[in-house]
């Protein structure tokens, strides 16, 4: 299956693209249009369809194309934002509500698996968090107390199931893991069986309210009463783009010489943290490890992140070979909680779910529960704790208006390959933004030696893209829009491709 980068994730191996039953655009008005076929879109669509709503899910590529195809699929109750911070920022009651939402989400995942008989290697496992110095040990003790205060079953332990030296460690019961793409495909089948319409290879380009919601797609117009952006980050220009920062994160799946794999999810306490878990696929076990996160396009050589991660893992584990390595993108909210609810600045019938950080398996299901409650009963299940409008930003509307106006600069202009080639001095597979005759040009030389040139100006709000040599994409440092080597949109919030630049050979 295809995903939004050139590296292959563990989950894609031997898996074909999902074939949906729906091929034609539906006529008439749907109750809910869900935009995006990742774990948020599919879990929410299934929930609403089962409750009797007529749903259409629209995916720009194939389902699992986005971050869900590049996740590592731990299902956690102890979140990236520790309960110490949640209690400080949202009070004991708010933190308790987060813990309850997390429990509800895991119950929903289990229920989906049981009810629809989804064979996705779901497993309850032990969780371990370990400290490697005095200050980490102090923080770990505080996290333990805070987690217990919201009902999480955790305790100090003298040993961890990974060969890594540590000072203090805690065990957290009832964590889980699964194969995210098998789960996603199971949700898709269940959604279609319940009568939902699933359209792949259909990009939503614009959403407007004209009494109902009118949606312009790459394959024609559609209409619905409600729309949900399950696109990981909403399209267009919105206050949330300034309140959800894009990060890249790296993962590898390795074989161990000893063939002994631990059966738990294990985390260290660095920032960014490393994690280690086991996944069995087709009779083979793999140690999955991840970390080395950085803000999107803020790392000049993304390949170094893979090298650093691999040497980190080799330091502690008897690695035989690295079988898969991949990177992907997540969005971090400003206060550590996701944005789930009405999309600010849009009609009341337009919703969003984003800003999950590294806890999207659980928060996607919190979104499924919260958005269903909003659409079905006009109520918030979690007392608007996750409401996207909880964060205000003064004076943004003028900025958005100015920045959204994208102007084509290269119209009709040609450039000579030989001039750019001399200037850029690129090895095959490499790319660079070069300055030539007053223009900035994003130039890529593919493995066959062919050149591809596009404007480096992101079509979202005009920031300049940078080359990601790990996934061979042009990434925008501002709001995380990503484009293929030849400028096609891979990841929102942009919905227009980079402007092509015409190259001449003679
Ligand atoms: C390396 C890495 C490891 C992670 N590990 C974990 C983990 O262990 N546990 C955990 O809980 N979370 C983890 N996360 C986070 C989690 O994977 C994500 O939060 C989650 O997958 C997001 O799912 P989503 O459905 O919201 O977005 P996506 O999976 O990105 O889906 C969005 C979909 O929308 C589609 N789309 C976009 N624009 C349009 C458009 N205009 N029209 C139609 N469709 C469109 C995209 O093609 C895409 O398929 C990890 C993240 C990373 C980067």
Chart the SSEs and their pairings.
Elements: E1 29-35, H1 39-50, E2 55-58, E3 74-75, H2 83-115, E4 123-131, H3 134-149, E5 154-157, E6 168-177, H4 180-193, E7 197-199, E8 204-210, E9 212-217, E10 220-229, E11 244-256, E12 264-267, E13 275-281, E14 284-295, H5 302-316, E15 319-333, E16 339-342, E17 350-354, H6 360-377, H7 396-403, E18 414-416, H8 417-424, E19 431-436, E20 439-445, E21 451-454, E22 466-468, E23 473-475, E24 482-484, E25 489-491, E26 502-504
Parallel strand pairs: 1-2, 1-10, 2-7, 4-12, 10-17, 18-26
Antiparallel strand pairs: 3-6, 4-6, 5-6, 8-9, 9-10, 11-14, 11-15, 12-13, 13-14, 16-17, 19-20, 20-21, 22-23, 23-24, 24-25
Bound molecules: flavin-adenine dinucleotide.
Describe the model.
This protein is an alpha+beta fold. Among the domains are: 121-177 and 246-329, D-Amino Acid Oxidase, Chain A, domain 2, CATH 3.30.9.10; 414-504, Rieske Iron-sulfur Protein (3-layer Sandwich). It has helices at 39-50, 83-115, 134-149, 180-193, 302-316, 360-377, 396-403, 417-424; strands at 29-35, 55-58, 74-75, 123-131, 154-157, 168-177, 197-199, 204-210, 212-217, 220-229, 244-256, 264-267, 275-281, 284-295, 319-333, 339-342, 350-354, 414-416, 431-436, 439-445, 451-454, 466-468, 473-475, 482-484, 489-491, 502-504. Strands 3, 4, 5, 6, 11, 12, 13, 14 and 15 form a 9-stranded mixed beta sheet that branches. Strands 1, 2, 7, 8, 9, 10, 16 and 17 form an 8-stranded mixed beta sheet that branches. A hairpin with a 4-residue loop joins strand 24 and strand 25. Residues 35-41, 58-61, 65-68, 70-74, 203-204, 230-232, 235, 249, 251, 290, 328-330, 356, 358-362, 364, 492, 495 line the site of flavin-adenine dinucleotide (FAD).
